[in-house]
Amino acid sequence: MDEELLVYEQDEVHTIPTSQDDLSVSGKLRIIEKRHGVVIEWRYSDDETSTDNEWAVINTAAVTFTHHNVSDSVEISSPRRTVRPISIELVDLRSYKICDNHSLVLIQRDGTTHPALAFHSGSVHCFVEVLLRYVAVKKSEKDGDLYLVSDKRQAAQDQELAAMNLVPSRYGMAGDGGGWSGGGPSGQWTSTHQRVMGFINNLKRDPYTTAAGALSKFYDTVLYSDVEGYVRENDGGEDEVAELFHSLNGFEDLEPGYELLTKKGTLNERPKVERLSPLTHDDFQQYVDDDGRIHDVTPLRDRIFRGGLHPNLRREVWCFLLNHNEWNATHIQREERRRSREDLYYTMKQQWRTVTPDQESRFSGFKERRSLIEKDVNRTDRNHPFYEGEHNLNVTALHDILMTYVMYNFDLGYVQGMSDLLAPILYVTQNEPIAFWCFVGYMDMVYRNFDMDQSGMKQQLKDMQQVVRLVDPELMSYLEIRDSANFYFCFRWLLVRFKRELNYANTLRLWEVLWTGRPCPNFHLLLAVALLDTEKNTIMENKFGFTEILKHINDISLRIDLDATLRKAEAIYKQIASSPNVPDGVRTVLGLPPQEPQQQHKSNKDEDASERRGSGSDEDVGSVNVTEGLGLVGVVSSMIGSAVRHLGGEDMMQASLEAVSGQQQEEGTSHQRRDAEAETEKRFETALSHQFV
Amino acid sequence: MNNSHRRQNSRGRSTVLKVVILGDGGVGKSCLMNRFVTDRFDEHSFHTIGVEFLNKEIELGGETYTLQIWDTAGQERFKSLRTPFYRGSDMCLLTYAVDDPPSFKNLETWRKEFVYYADVKADFPFLVVGNKIDLERRVTTEEAEAWCKENGDLPYIETSAKDATNVEASFMMCLRRWANIEGRQERMPMPDTGLLGIL
């Protein structure tokens, strides 16, 4: 211990609650020089004496809730994840974020993203000052909050990259603040032009070596450089490159599935979107006539979409949204339906309750399901006050409803994830038969998530590809290069509709918004796209690969700003809906009518594009968009990608990936390891994409 | 503290090894991983959806290894989205719960699924883990050992993630087995006395 040197210590550094009823935990932030290296630590303030009780400290600080009484409109949510102490070796620190000048998020090389820390005393800048004694830091150009940590070794590599000189990189510009400068736009363009032409000639002469070599060179350069900014400053350059692309005789015929969207095909501006406060009881009454009928469902759905429901209205209105109640029924009809459905529920419940152990011994399908349900209800939301404690009757009800659902739909049975979908419904309705029928209504919307062959989930991941390719081609290119275009990291988001990512209050809010079916089908996919848009800079600037992205995405669970994400998702919808040249694949996903033919004939170039689109499959998974955001980088990487796919197929791709992975030494693993990983991930993607077909 | 065995050399020297934990739903895969990595146990922790992984550094014979431990959803339904992650594995923990005979019976299925999709060599470092020995036992140690013997003499260990019994030991055991197999293969071109010395 005497070999350790404490170089920085700050009290009252708090975790930031993810919602108003979450807990903020106070701790000490330290930087310590240890024998094997410098370590950043954050520990609970009252954790000085006992290190064994690290976890207990937070668990005992539970907030008391008034639960079992939803009609009193107490929105409760519990801290479902205990806050862990932080200990990071400085060599593992990849970057950090400073938001609003006072909160700090530490991000590790492996993608681990720690909870935000707020400085209630002292300042984050003092911390950074000490940090700078040990590492070099550069501010991200794309995300003003993000700071990338590098050591001397990395800085040296940056120099090497600049020396490759494939495309202009800001590291080549001595004393330059970041943008492209010197030589004048036209002069620089000519040299880029020459380089591109040179590349194309090489590609024709020796496609294998050229493509593999360029892809590997390109790899990190793409991620470091500010080429997009450069292209924007040199207006017209992009079109010129697009023309170059066209001029390659027969190039576009190599891959009929590939399409080229020119600058004019990019999306319109993303509009600003406002949301409203939740619908209150009084608001709701205006939609209901004296007999209890709701005639005008459309504006009511619109209104619920825009602001959600006040908690004391949920119990009533969820029954409509989940098809337990019919909108256009009177109070009396509704009561009749409720009673008959209650009877039906208890009939089905009796069916499984009367299966004897002897019967069960010859009924393995039933036995397996019962066993898994028992295991899963015991680990569903057990930190929530409604489900906590031993012998909790609500857990029993959860079990009974799921067992009855097995009898109701034996073909589907019980699949993991269903208990997550049911638990909030039972909490809101507080009535077993009603919860059952509401759950049936929810399952009718999402049953394809639980397909035996998982084709519903695969379809959604594939739809994600299409939408991201349209909305953010730059991110899509990045994910492709990093073998992450399978979007597998969104799996949990989609399977249980973000339930594991949000606290209870936010889960309830999100679900009722999604159930309105507004503004389009599959709106949950746009929510996922919006979340990725928010995380894009962190993913790309940190140069995360598949495993790091997966880890980062898992780590931001419970730290999502739902309101902002809903606004962004709707804005993306409006952006797509108002834009011309949206591929039909995306239109289908979002329920937009097919593109009208005259929209495609504005210019010759557009005509070319549309012809290609017509001849290709409407599943434009393999399409290449050369859009504004992508710029030169996109053009060249598209060319490489197409050439590689066409000329060499799998082997070629493998060779390129190996070349690529050789560049990743600084990621901290050996060449051999990296190759193996690249291969694994590649095969994973291939495997998935084969399944998609 | 658990961190006392952390590497002394800087990043870049430690070898990353991919470990896959398999077994039926509810046998304690995530709990084993969390106990090993964070020394923490939560009886009511969520069942895993999709895949998760945690890294843990571990030292053996003066070498530091980063175990990248992959934990997947155990239900049959998720097979097609789970199996792509088997590729590139360095070792595999086949897990069952000693209070759950069907989970023991299914070890065979898990082993086959892994071998098929991971495409591994015959002498791949498997470890069979009987978890939940804090609960009333319905599978005997003898039964489990017999199964292991019949299936290529696989090593066997019994654990309790709840009581922290044998959890670190099981990962260590698996790593030793990996090093042993690896050492055998590499002895010809490059003898690794450092590793062999401790085995």
From TrEMBL, chain A:
Principal location class: cytoplasm
InterPro entries linked: Rab-GAP-TBC_dom (IPR000195), Rab-GAP_TBC_sf (IPR035969), SGSM1/2_RBD (IPR021935)
Keyword set includes Phosphoprotein: yes
Subcellular location per the Swiss-Prot or TrEMBL entry: Cytoplasm
Keywords, comma-separated and alphabetical: Acetylation, Cytoplasm, GTPase activation, Phosphoprotein
SUPFAM superfamilies membership: Ypt/Rab-GAP domain of gyp1p
Ranges of compositional bias, category Basic and acidic residues: 603-616, 668-685
Domain Rab-GAP TBC: 308-518
Gene Ontology molecular functions: GTPase activator activity
GO CC entries: cytoplasm
Pfam families given in the database record: PH_RBD, RabGAP-TBC
Region (Disordered): 584-624, 658-693
Function noted in UniProt: Acts as a GTPase activating protein for RAB7A. Does not act on RAB4, RAB5 or RAB6.
Record note on quaternary structure: Interacts with non-phosphorylated form of RAB8A; phosphorylation of RAB8A at 'Thr-72' disrupts this interaction. Interacts with ARMC12.
Official protein name in the record: TBC1 domain family member 15
Organism per entry: Petrolisthes manimaculis
From TrEMBL, chain B:
Cofactor requirements of the protein: Mg(2+)
SMART domains the record matches: RAB, RAN, RAS, RHO
Gene Ontology MF term list: G protein activity; GTP binding
Keywords: Cell membrane, Cytoplasmic vesicle, GTP-binding, Hydrolase, Lipoprotein, Membrane, Nucleotide-binding, Phosphoprotein, Prenylation, Protein transport, Transport
Enzyme class: hydrolase
Membrane topology label: Lipid-anchor
Subcellular location: Cell membrane; Cytoplasmic vesicle, Phagosome membrane
Source species, domain of life: Eukaryota
One CC-aspect GO term: phagocytic vesicle membrane
Enzyme Commission designation: 3.6.5.2
Reactions catalysed according to its record: GTP + H2O = GDP + phosphate + H(+)
UniProt similarity note: Belongs to the small GTPase superfamily. Rab family.
Annotated protein name in UniProt: small monomeric GTPase
Native source organism of the sequence: Petrolisthes manimaculis
